[in-house]
Amino acid sequence: MYFRNKINAMKNKLKPLILLLSAGIVIFSGGCAATKELQAEPVKKVILSKGPKKRVAVIDFENKTAYGRERLGSSAADILTTELVKSQQFIVIERAKLNQIMEEQGLGMSGVIDPKTATRAGQILGLNAIVTGAVSQFGIKSQGTDVGFYKSKLQIAETAVDLRVIDTGTGQILLAETGQGSATTETSEVLGMGGRAGYDETLAGKALRSAIAKFIDNIVQTMRAGEWAGRIAQVEGGTVYINAGQQVGLAINDKLDVYRPGKEISDPVTGLSLGFTQSKIGQVQITGFFGENGSTAVPVVGVNFQTNDIVKLAQ
User: Fold this and answer.
1) What's the sign of the alpha-carbon dihedral 187, 190, 191, 194?
2) 212 in helix, strand or coil?
């Protein structure tokens, strides 16, 4: 009976090791950890649309949490920028160039940017939309298992990201969404071999990517569904210079309707901006291209076109 009890006790202690080996986990004496990770959801494949590509910019997100200071906001913006570029649907302004111009013009550079500021930035940078938002929640929790000579540590990062898409032509918010995401890493140790992991710094990025993946398709579809618009950059004699060209998909002989921006209209109840009025004043036709992404045009209908007049693809 004594030896039987000893044998049973030894079997119980060996159960964790037997389970690990049966699951196909290889333990290296060099200190490598057995790690499991929850991958972010893949971004949905977007069907490419016809028509001019829109120029968009992603502003650093505001970090409303107590974690990571400015890192979470900039990381969220970087992830979203990458996904928009991968969609091949937009011309995404480089972050360094965007930040430099925003600083020079004294404009806000975080998720607190308002519709008025977005409209001004759109005029300066030739943007059709600005995407911004905030990391509203972020937390890390750990769970552990300690059974005999088997130990494991589970780290879980959970986050919520709020997002807004602002039409720079009207100042209207085209889309407002919230996405939640999480990422998990598990490290195990048997007989002193394996990982003794501290906090995994990559968890934050994986959780953010998981949250952003929830609404990236809606962002793309919303911005592509809206009407494309450009601006008159300059008028010299009979030539009209447009701040958009081959890069956005314009072609020779394309006709663009010209609109004069008007006054801002606000909601009488909330006081929030509803957008800006626009009056059609004529039409121009594309004759050529210049620079990185500009085009030349001649008037077809109308006169006295001015810098900052709005142009839209004629139907």
Assistant:
1) negative
2) helix
DSSP designation for 83: H
Span 235-272, pLDDT tens digits: 999 999 998 998 888 999 999 999 998 887 877 887 76
Query: Helix, strand or coil for residue 154?
Result: strand
- Do the domain assignments include residue 134? yes
Q: Around 162, how many Cα atoms within 13 Å sit in the side-chain half-sphere?
A: 13
Alpha helices (runs of H) in 23-131, residue ranges in sequence order: 71-87, 95-104, 115-125
Helix (H, G, I), strand (E, B) or coil at 128: coil
Is the Cβ–Cβ distance between 258 and 304 less than 8 Å? Answer: no
Task: Give the number of other Cβ atoms within 10 Å of residue 218's Cβ.
Answer: 15
pLDDT > 60? residue 184:
yes
Do residues 78 and 59 share a domain?
Answer: yes
The Cα 48–Cα 306 span in angstroms is 33
Token digits for 179? 């996405």
* Residue among 226, 237, 247, 239 nearest 286 (CA): 239
Q: pTM for the whole thing?
A: 0.67
CATH number at residue 188: 3.40.50.10610
Across the strands, what pairs with 162? 134, 178
- Identify the domain containing residue 181 by its residue range: 51-225
Tens of pLDDT, residues 109-122: 555 566 667 777 77
Whether the CB-CB separation of 166 and 56 falls below 8 Å is answered with no
Whether residues 212 and 287 share a domain: the answer is no
Is residue 174 exposed (0-12), middle (13-18) or buried (19+ Cβ within 10 Å)? middle
Q: Are strands 62-63 and 129-147 parallel, antiparallel or unpaired?
A: parallel
Per-position DSSP letters for 168-205, written without gaps between them: TTT--EEEEEEEEEEEEEEEEEETTEE------THHHH
Distance, first Cα to last Cα, the chain: 93
Contact 230, 277 (CB under 8 A): no
